[in-house]
Each structure stands twice: as C-alpha cells, then as structure tokens.
Amino acid sequence: MAHMDVAGIRKVFELARSLKNPVNLSIGQPDFEVPLPVRNAAKEAMENRKNGYTLTQGIPELRETILADVRKWYPHNNDRGLVITSGTSGALTIALCCTVNPGDEVIIFDPFFVMYPHFVRLAGGTPVFLSTYPTCTIDVDRVRSAISPRTKAILVNSPANPTGVLHSRESLRDLALLAQERRILLISDEVYRAFAYDAPFVSPAEFNPDVLVVDGFSKSHAMTGWRLGFAHGPQRLIEEMAKLQQFTFVCAPSIVQHAGVAAWQFDPKGFANDYRRKRDLMLAGMRDRFEIVRPGGAFYLYPRVPWGTGTEFVAKAVEQNLLILPGCSFSQQDTHFRISYAADDLTLERGIEILNKLARR
Ligand SMILES: Cc1ncc(COP(=O)(O)O)c(C=O)c1O
User: Fold this and answer.
1) Does the CB atom of residue 189 touch ligand 1 within 6 A?
2) What is the number of the ligand 1 atom nearest to the C-alpha of 160?
3) 155-201: pLDDT as tens digits
4) Where are the beta strands (DSSP E) in the chain?
5) Ligand 1: which atom is nearest the Cα of residue 224?
6) Domains of the chain, with CATH numbers?
7) Percent of the chain with pLDDT over 70
8) Are 163 and 293 in contact (CB under 8 A)?
9) Measured between alpha carbons, how far is 303 from 281 in angstroms, rounded to an integer?
C-alpha cells in the first residue's frame, strides 16, 4: 500500500466537497442519465429475483450478445472468449494478475490512466513508463526500444484518459504487429470506444488475434457506479481470468448484468454527438491561451500549463473555485492539467472564463 499515492487526486475531491458550488471539471464520468430502458431492465431483474450469484463468466444472455458482435467485428478470430467483469477495472485487475509474474515489466504510455501503475504493481510487476510528450501519440519505434526480455505486456488506451487522444489506425496496427512479433500481450483498454469523434474507432484486435480487450459500460452508458465490464481475447487467457474471478470478485452484479443486455442494445451515439460538440466548445474557448493536443475522443482535454507546474496551476484554479486535476496524477511529469468536459454547457463556459483569466497571470 505504501506504493500507492492517491494524495493528489483525493485532495481535489475533498476540496470539491468543501467548496460551495464549484465549477467542477475534474470528474471522469458522464453527466447524462443512465438510459431509461437500462434502468427499467435493472428494476425488472430485481423484481424477477435475479439477485443471486451468476456464473462467474457472466450470464449467458449478456455474454452471447456481446460475443456475437465481437465475432462479427473480428471474423478472422473465432477463438475469442469473453468474460463479464466487475467494471473495466475488474477486467484489468484479473488480466494483469493472470499474466504478470514478479519482476515482469509492463509498458505504459505516459500520460496514463491513474490506475495502470497500481494494477501492474499489485500483480508484482514493474511499470515501464514511455513518455509520449509532446504529441501524446504512439511512436512504435520507441516502444520497440523499450522492450526488454522481461516485458510481459503493453497497455494501450484509445481514446485515451487523460489526453482524449484517439490513436491513429496505423499506430495501433503497428503496435499490434510489434506485440505479435515479440510475443508480448497487448492489452487494449477500450472503455471510451463510444466516444471517437475525428475518425472511426479502431481496435488493435483487428490486426492481432492475441490482443486482450478490456471494456465496460461505465462511460458509454453513464453506469460508473453499476460496475459492469467485460474482457475478450484468446480463449486460454479468458479461461484463466474467469478462474481468478471465481475466487475474487465471484461475478459482476447480477441485476446489472441483466440490465447490461438492454444497455448493449442501446446506441449511445446521441451522447457522443453531444460530447463532440462540448469538445469543440472547449477547444474554441481555450484555443488562444493554451497549448492543447487535439483530443479526438473521450471527454478530456490535457492542456499544457501556461506557467508554473501543473500542481501550482491547479492550486490557483481551486482558489478561483475551479476544480481540475494536475497532470502529475497521470504522468511522471507535472506540466499539464486535465479537464473533463462531461458537464453542462454553463459549467463549461464558466470554466473557460476562469481558465483564460488564470492563463493571463
Ligand atoms: C482509461 C480507463 N480505463 C478504465 C477505467 C475504469 O472504468 P470502470 O468504471 O469500468 O472500472 C477508467 C475510468 O475512469 C478509465 O478512464
């Protein structure tokens, strides 16, 4: 536990509670409501007494519904198995614990999703951070140079948290092929798959059948508190993950799995269109005073601070009642800050105004 430093993020969340009516652009969850058919399906499941344990790999209705689409998307690989998990985090936890041995290395692109290094260390592995600044895109030659005899896995996330970057088809293909050539597991975190704006979503699983995909309903359907995710990949690995899930999480929440069938049938395109518009609103509002890598997806912006460190800039923002997160929570360097634009337009406009004033300091 001594290796897990959550002080930075926790401080902002505590501040969020203490401030009166803050302009809160710090939260990584959608601001829309869980779609009505999904809520109704959950109620129905509860009333129909779907309250017990389920099969550890998930209820057949949900597994088969998702797997049918997965097999359609990746027809070259009929060996793909699928396990329903307690959120994408649950999928990542069991995936890394099943594959990483003590001393193994896992390559993580910096900036990264806060939990990644912790998942790796929990499994006994060592995170190897590969800086992607200033473009926050993947340079496959640099990945090649970072591979050592101990490299067990590479973690990739597109669209990405905290940058919003949607990695190009070419870079994901080259990364997938490199992993295949070097017999390294590529884990693709696709939890923001529904939010791809500038180009169609691409999974590295298209190019390498051994890619393990982790995904979930938290972001696409605003179900962050429901804890529903899944993983698909080579059958042998999925079976090991199910074995570990049996003796840890046991199963994803039963009611939620039943609601997941309705969620899978609900197309979140409308939400994505709204977030694309919010992305454009933020970029237009901040363009003149901030250096920002264009975010092609998710609901984050990762601007460079105009002065000071990320921590110093965020402290000043908080004094102005604006909550954002310092880049050092997502990176080994403290030069940026993260904005989540999953908020109503008025909040976004208030945020832009405060940020532009702060930049002029
Ligand atoms: C990149 C990434 N992966 C995984 C997760 C965790 O998602 P879940 O709520 O499905 O566990 C998040 C949540 O913020 C995320 O940003």
Assistant:
1) yes
2) 1
3) 999 999 999 999 999 999 999 999 999 999 999 999 999 999 999 99
4) 23-24, 80-85, 105-110, 126-131, 151-157, 185-189, 212-216, 229-234, 300-301, 322-323, 325-326, 337-340
5) 9
6) 7-28+268-359 (3.90.1150.10), 36-264 (3.40.640.10)
7) 99
8) yes
9) 15
